[in-house]
């Protein structure tokens, strides 16, 4: 991923927009409501959603699914259509760059007890309104607060 990040930073320095992909893991409760999973960031421990750089040879949906497995330790089915987008300022060593993020919903079918970043991150299941209050990025917070799960969603394994 380091090469992809370096390429994105070069693009940002030229004034080009750069993008990432993200997954919002969700599950349905026994009462018919839904919850979303947030994870903490590695450095600041702020609550975020699993996200990362696009992966060569993989669709955005597949890359988001992989990020959810690596960062949140969840497996599931990712909806075909993006749930939305948001933008944020990514902190780098010497500056900030603007990043546009395409977000996919991931219906969780399995939570792993051990996963790649388990020692660096915490995860939490929350109602969307509660999750939105914990998220610092305004655009992501709004997306999560207004999130709806499509009825009879066409879900495909990514």
From TrEMBL:
GO MF assignments: metal ion binding; pyrophosphatase activity
Alphabetized UniProt keyword annotations: Hydrolase, Magnesium, Metal-binding
Segments forming domain Nudix hydrolase: 16-147
GO CC, alphabetical: cytoplasm
Family matches, as InterPro entries: DDP-like_NUDIX (IPR047198), NUDIX_hydrolase-like_dom_sf (IPR015797), NUDIX_hydrolase_dom (IPR000086)
PROSITE patterns associated with the record: NUDIX (PS51462)
Signal peptide limits: none
Gene3D superfamilies: Nucleoside Triphosphate Pyrophosphohydrolase
Cofactor(s) the record lists: Mg(2+)
Entry superkingdom: Bacteria
Protein name, as recorded: NUDIX hydrolase
């Amino acid at each position: 991923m380091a090469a992809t990040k370096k390429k994105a930073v070069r693009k940002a320095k030229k004034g080009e927009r750069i993008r990432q992909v993200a997954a919002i893991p969700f599950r349905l409760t026994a009462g018919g409501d839904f919850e979303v999973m947030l994870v903490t960031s590695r450095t600041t421990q702020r609550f975020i959603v699993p996200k990362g750089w696009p992966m060569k040879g993989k669709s955005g949906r597949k890359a988001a699914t992989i990020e959810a497995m690596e960062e949140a330790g969840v497996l599931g089915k990712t909806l075909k259509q993006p749930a939305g987008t948001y933008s944020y300022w990514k902190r780098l060593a010497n500056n900030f760059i603007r990043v546009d993020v395409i977000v996919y919903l991931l219906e969780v079918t399995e939570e792993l007890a051990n996963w790649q970043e388990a020692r660096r991150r915490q995860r939490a299941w929350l109602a969307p309104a509660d999750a939105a209050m914990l998220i610092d990025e305004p655009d992501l917070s709004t997306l999560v607060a207004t999130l709806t799960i499509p009825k009879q969603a066409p879900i495909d394994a990514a």
